[in-house]
Amino acid sequence: MTRPITAGVDGTEESLAALEWAAREAVRRNLALRVVQAWRFQPYEAIDAGDRETQAGWVKNAVADAARAVEARHSGLEVITDVLEGDTVDTLVGAGAEAEMLVLGSRGHGPVVGFLLGSVGQQVIAEARGPVVLVRAGDQPSAEAAGREIVVGQQGDPQDSADTLRFAFETASARGAGVRVVRAWTLPPVFAYSPGSMQILDQAGGLEPFEKKALAAALRPWRERFPDVPVVEHVEMGSAGQVLLSVAARAQLMVVGRRAHRTAVGARIGSVAHGVLHHAECPVAVVPHS
Known about the structure:
The protein is an alpha/beta fold. It has 2 domains: 1-139, HUPs (Rossmann fold); 145-290, 3-Layer(aba) Sandwich (Rossmann fold). Helix content is 42%, strand content 24%. The protein has 10 helices and 13 strands. Strands 1, 2, 3, 4, 5, 6, 7, 8, 9, 10 and 13 form an 11-stranded mixed beta sheet that branches. Helix 1 (13-29) links the parallel strand 1 (5-8) and strand 2 (33-39). The chain starts with a strand and ends with a strand. It comes from Streptomyces gilvifuscus. Belongs to the universal stress protein A family. This is Universal stress protein. Residues 1-136, 149-288 form the UspA domain. It holds the Pfam family Usp.
């Protein structure tokens, strides 16, 4: 069964920008758009906020209005709406598990501050089993103009970034865009050297040629699967987050992978994803590794 693209909404400007982004992507991929809002009944003693049924009606009407508006802008788009009562994070994670991707809004105030995720956004990204795309208020279709790339980070062995590369190439193919694949590398600490690793590096001609060969190997199956997608292989010395952000100005979408790290204070999404989410001006897709 074909899964929809799901947008989480809450009536804010940023969530409506995410809804519009999701609608454009659904049209490109010929998929349905599911509009989901999580809510909980909240009685207020100070004011008459209505009973459970009344509040549910208000939320359903707001979601229906947003869906009708986006449906009117995209002829032929199938739009499904769901108002789900429950914890926001659990509801969105569950909705994302049934979707090709989950699209959420995120507040941002320019390139320095970037995304303000909040606890809900960060928890959803950390818990999601599929791609989560973050879109800021003010996002415009013009940002997807020809010449702007899908920028994706690649690291490790071919299988380590397979899900991330798949998402980037599928998105680029649907948009008729090119892909810039970024592999950052740093000098290993002295204690990491060993006779075996040094022999491998010597055979490759040094560190940078070794990294270029590793990137080429990771890209080989995706070049074959998507022969019409132009590819730029970008290998640069530096931290992954800094190198990705250095090319962010040319991106219409940035794609990064993540492995959630469990700590005593909850799940963390990793420094690269965290840095890109907070400083990139374009939408950012975070793809969990299998």
